[in-house]
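Complex record, two chains
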Amino acid sequence: MKEFAAALYVEMSKALKSKMLWGTLIFFAFIAFMLGFMMLVAKHPEIAGNSAILSTKASFIAKADWHVFFGLMLQMALILGLVGPAIVTIWVFGREYSDRVIKDLLALPVSRVNIVLAKFVIAFTWSILLMSLLFVCALLAGLAVHLDGWSSELMLKNLRIYTVSSLLTILLFPVISLITCISRGYLLPVGVTILLLISTQFLFLGLPSITPYFPWAIPGLISGVSGPFSPKPEIISYVILGLTTILGIGGTVAWWRYADQH
Amino acid sequence: MDTVIRTENLSKLYGKLKAVDNVSINVSRGEIYGFLGLNGAGKTTTIRMLLGMIRSTSGAAYLNSVKVTPGNPAMWKDIGYLVEVPYSYPDLTVRENLDLVRRLRMIKYPGCVDLIIEKFNLGQYSDIIAKNLSLGNSQRLGLAKAMIHNPALLLLDEPANGLDPAGIVEIREMLKDLALNKGVTVFISSHILGEISKFATRIGIIHEGVLLHESSVSDMENQRKVCLRVKSKDIMGAGNILEKSGFATVLTDEGVLEIKDKEAVSYPEKISALLVNSGFPPSLIKVEEEDLEAFFLRVIKMKGGER
């Protein structure tokens, strides 16, 4: 336990002293406030003035109320819930390779398994923080814009969907950490993340019958964020989701433990 | 004496390439073992296998009689290491980098960071972020990270890289002191025999993965070739006289006769007298010892190493 605590402290220090943590926090807060701004423009089209792009985007929003706003937030949860934790985990694991300090972590009284688990804890906590910040900031932005149709029930219902969707998507990030470690850098996992994002959207639009079997689509089905017309999750969906997480964690630990580290 | 490092037919293959080929080494407590080889000879691969960073294809490595496996963190407690170019977290200061190592080394005493900063003269750089350090100071930081826990065994891969001459002497004296006075075992790789021979007690020379030569430094001194170099106005005539007297000679491109005969090397005055009496007085007569670089190159059988 002392070993794990030491590894956790070190990983936390590295994260807190990095620009990446603060950069991602600012980015997520910015996205949330931009959502609020879009609602403001939808509510007051005169703000867009002559900006064609702004007015076009705002015109996608049917009605500037809380129901529509929460729908937007849930869409963001699907996209940023995948991209945010992926970027975090790519950085947490990938920096050891890009900064060429991985060898300093391999022959220590603290086991490699403890170091990997500490990294997972940091990446998970960081991802939760980002998703929480996105929700809180978006909520504040919505309140600031004075949207119509607020109710605590509506907020709690959407919070539940948002939380389940975000948490389940975050649980898939260990696969990205495994790809980061195998490729020993940033490029491949970033590429895979983009591919996953596109594939998930494509499956929902083009091949919805496959979504109960595709790990990155399953959180949307379980949480209900993908809407009432999407297929219902099956037992196998939960199994696939769990196995993907286990594969990611186990694979990353095994990679650190057994693979040659150059 | 206790054997601290032992490898048994340690080998590493990358496809068909034998990076390390059946290397067996024994290093005793308090020894400074110089592990020499050209770039790509297998030095770093051997050190990585000793540290459990890569798995051997065959054979085994033991540190303090414990078989090296990546899953045994307790064995690294008293071992410090530096592999290739020492990198540190670029956005953390020297002090922060060392404090992270302290925690991962499970050292409770925070003052050890100040002590190691002082030991490696990093005081004025302690609050500088690592990416702004010079190559020499990055190397010092790497060595400080390797030694922060006062290890009983040090595995150092080319630690003099990037250090200025004063820094090289400083590290050399520090390692000598650790080995002589504190019983620390040092396994140090390099491609500069002249530098290593100044403080190593034993050397091993590896080439293309094969351990070609292993000896104490004093034995190595005896194995270095010695020859007598003679120059005369009539070099051909002098050569004939020496050959007739039973001394095999080699005429070099520089027009100098080289005699490897032990008697000639031991008694150059006899050769001088012979040439003078035969009418071929020498303009140069000199006993020359093979330098370390030539010895190294001869051992690894490289062209130009033969004399």
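Note: The mean pLDDT of chain A is 88.
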